[in-house]
Amino acid sequence: MSLLIICRFISFLLALEVSMAIVPLDFGPKVQLNCSNTIHVDQSGRGNFESIKAAVDSVPPNNSQWICIYVKQGVYKERVFISRDRPFIYIVGDGLRQTQIVSNGTDPIDATATFITHAANIIIQGISFINSYNYPAIGSPNPMTQAVAAKIEGDKTAFYECGFYGLQDTLWDHSGRHYFKDCIIEGAVDFIFGAGQSIYENCVISVVGEAIGSEGFITSHSRQSPEETSGFVFKHCYIGGNGKTYLGRPWRKYARVIYYKTFMSNIIVPHGWAAASSTSQDQGLLTFVDDECFGPGANTSERPDWANKLNPEELQKFVCISYINSDG
Ligand SMILES: *[C@@H]1O[C@H](CO)[C@@H](O)[C@H](O)[C@H]1NC(C)=O
Ligand SMILES: *[C@@H]1O[C@H](CO)[C@@H](O)[C@H](O)[C@H]1NC(C)=O
Ligand SMILES: *[C@@H]1O[C@H](CO)[C@@H](O)[C@H](O)[C@H]1NC(C)=O
Ligand SMILES: *[C@@H]1O[C@H](CO)[C@@H](O)[C@H](O)[C@H]1NC(C)=O
């Protein structure tokens, strides 16, 4: 039985507008902000800065007005960090194939991601974040290890038309409310992980499982208690690639991951979901759902009996944008 799910037409970014009242927004495919200042980054020296790090560092501490940073096409070999006291930054590249940020950090994974953001109210568009330590996976000289491309730790953060490339632990969706739209996320093992409260809409999940020679895991969510509001929701996404993969395994006991109206190619293992524990008590704490999905990997007949236990009313709470749009 499926209930027609009607989401109220509120957007995450409209909430930013209401709470800020200084940001006129246009709901086209691209976000348009009335930036108080636009900084140009260009490796050829014709902009204000030649590195993205220098541009971000030029934003005054405790910034309260939207500042736009336009990053001209190029491969930027650097690490970029947005500290907590630099909110309201909108970084726009020339497209995910044109503007790339690349580095190869692995240890400690907390501090070596190519991109790390701690501030609230951050919007990124048209940029790829790459951790090249194990990427491209085929032919990589390095043994597989945790190599994070982006770690997102600020609240109210949105990515449009962005790419995240790695092999293990590509995207650390660490904490806070996040929205990913029209993005591509690539990897093989736990490559979307953390305790974020996030909606991924119309995104491509690109699995490079052949590179590891065993079954991988798309997600590893880290909800620790029943009070936590965190969860990963994939809506109208596309899962493809090579090898074999699970939809997810838990990082912590109350992990919550939902795939809704998502295409799944035949790379999904029939069991679909992995549990950390074999006791039914522990398995019952997990919220792992794939509902109204389609494609050869979406047959749920062999999914474990502890998966897919949300009723339509419960599901509706997660697949609507209000899941990440409400305060508290
Ligand atoms: C942007 O803000 C300025 C100053 O507040 C205003 O004059 C201008 O009309 C605004 N532009 C747009 C496109 O809203
Ligand atoms: C920014 O705000 C924080 C918290 O209010 C304050 O502790 C800090 O000194 C401020 N920084 C600057 C450079 O004004
Ligand atoms: C990481 O990148 C640096 C700088 O580009 C390079 O010198 C180094 O060889 C790379 N290390 C690995 C293990 O790929
Ligand atoms: C789903 O899988 C089961 C068991 O493997 C099979 O019997 C059934 O025909 C499949 N359903 C569809 C729609 O392919």
Q: Topology, please?
A:
Layout: H1 12-20, E1 26-27, E2 31-32, E3 37-41, H2 52-57, E4 67-71, E5 74-77, E6 80-82, E7 89-93, E8 99-103, E9 115-117, E10 122-125, E11 128-131, E12 150-152, E13 157-160, E14 163-165, E15 171-173, E16 177-181, E17 184-187, E18 189-194, E19 197-201, E20 204-208, E21 216-221, E22 231-235, E23 238-242, E24 245-250, E25 256-260, E26 263-264, H3 280-283, E27 287-291, H4 312-319, H5 322-325
Parallel strand pairs: 3-4, 4-7, 5-8, 6-9, 7-10, 8-11, 9-12, 10-13, 11-14, 12-15, 13-16, 14-17, 15-18, 16-19, 17-20, 18-21, 19-22, 20-23, 21-24, 22-25, 23-26, 25-27
Antiparallel strand pairs: 1-2
Residues 77, 104, 133, 142 line the site of one 2-acetamido-2-deoxy-beta-D-glucopyranose.
Q: Beta-strand level of the residues, as a percent range? A: 25-35%
How many helices does DSSP assign? 5
State the low-pLDDT regions, or none: 9-29
Structural class: mainly beta
Number of strands: 27
Give the % helix: under 10%
Question: What is the average of the pLDDT values?
Answer: 90
Principal-axis shape: globular
Characterize the main sheet: 10 strands, parallel
Q: Hetero groups bound? A: 2-acetamido-2-deoxy-beta-D-glucopyranose
What's the alpha carbon Rg, rounded to whole Å? 19 Å
Organism: Salvia divinorum
Active site: 190
Function: Acts in the modification of cell walls via demethylesterification of cell wall pectin.
Main location: secreted
